[in-house]
């Protein structure tokens, strides 16, 4: 299968699994990922301190429903796992609707949509349903309520895939795996990350690459707290989330604001010719806020399409398999690969003939300006590379200053390096 088929098939396979911040759903998800990429799976026991947090008890669920007195299931977890508030405590009883309704949640203004709700750190229970489903309840009736769940000591699970490169310097790529049947948020991020790992596994790599698949917030915090000694090797990084819908790409800068990863994304997006937006870092969002917390301060941005909380389907049953577009998955993967290619090829050179403009013609590099836009651009790129290759400007620096695509600057540097005019300073 092509990449798009593999990504779509993975999303379809993972979609029915009920995931939360702990539990067997995460384990099942990671086991499926391990069929495709090398994945080390780690467990962090309940009660473990991870910075300012403590790993909670593990939650698992087998079934849940609300039945009327005839035994008909009005709300059925088996049909949609979003129906149960994540981390709902076990319950089995009959209760009047007036009592039950305090534990029912709908998506206002969307009569057919079921919202996604959680109660991770505040023990309670609840059901999510559509407004149309709620309208079927008799306010004077009683209902049988069952949540067949467990909440007991266990562990939090995360996985990481490490692809060693020529250097120990790392690129960190992270996706959260804690959401149940939500396709864009974040099965799309998981699928693109897996496809990216597959592509990089068979490619020459200057950098080492570390992919982290962890529950949101506390999962990333757990990984950070157990890997502090490695963090000094992280040179670049980004979080992948909501990369499958039809909107243009949004890139959220790292806390560094102008880190190389930020500049690489901005450069690729600017020259893509496609709609996009760039937003500044804020301490709200996905796990980039953990990687960019002040005591960690890694150069990690976030790539997404629609921004969390800004599209109606967000955290509802409308974030389904139809909401994710195959062409968006492919485009997201391609943009990531272009960014990584830029990082891999970005080098610093020294002009070996800096006194005056060197004679390019006798080296077969100069054929006169004005003989076509492509030739002119290439020859301008040669001049820019020579002028700024003073040992302190990288190829990305030069591309940005020249207003030319990185690939054009890289081609010019390669041509010059094949002569006596350019020497590599920093690899």
Annotate the secondary structure layout.
Elements: H1 3-14, H2 24-33, E1 40-45, E2 49-50, E3 53-54, E4 58-67, E5 73-76, E6 91-96, H3 97-100, E7 104-105, E8 127-128, H4 131-134, E9 142-152, E10 155-163, E11 170-176, H5 183-201, E12 208-214, H6 218-226, E13 234-240, E14 249-252, H7 260-272, E15 276-279, H8 288-291, E16 300-304, H9 326-345, E17 348-351, H10 373-388, E18 390-394, H11 395-402, H12 406-417, E19 422-426
Parallel strand pairs: 7-8, 11-12, 11-13, 13-16, 14-15
Antiparallel strand pairs: 1-10, 2-3, 4-5, 4-9, 6-9, 10-12, 14-16, 17-18, 17-19
Feature tags:
12 helices; 4-stranded antiparallel beta sheet; Glucose Oxidase, domain 1; Arc Repressor Mutant, subunit A; Aminopeptidase; 427 residues; single chain; alpha/beta
How would you describe the overall organization of this protein?
It is a single chain. With 427 residues, this protein is of the alpha/beta class. The chain has three domains: 3-56 and 155-345, Aminopeptidase, CATH 3.40.630.10; 59-152, Glucose Oxidase, domain 1; 348-426, Arc Repressor Mutant, subunit A (Orthogonal Bundle). Helix content is 31%, strand content 24%. The protein contains twelve helices and 19 strands. It has helices at 3-14, 24-33, 97-100, 131-134, 183-201, 218-226, 260-272, 288-291, 326-345, 373-388, 395-402, 406-417, and strands spanning 40-45, 49-50, 53-54, 58-67, 73-76, 91-96, 104-105, 127-128, 142-152, 155-163, 170-176, 208-214, 234-240, 249-252, 276-279, 300-304, 348-351, 390-394, 422-426. Strands 1-10-12-11-13-16-14-15 form an eight-stranded mixed sheet, sandwiched between helices. Strands 5-4-9-6 form a four-stranded antiparallel sheet. Helix 1 (3-14) crosses helix 9 (326-345), helix 5 (183-201) crosses helix 9 (326-345) and helix 7 packs across helix 9 (326-345). The chain is elongated and about 95 Å long. It starts with a helix and ends with a strand.
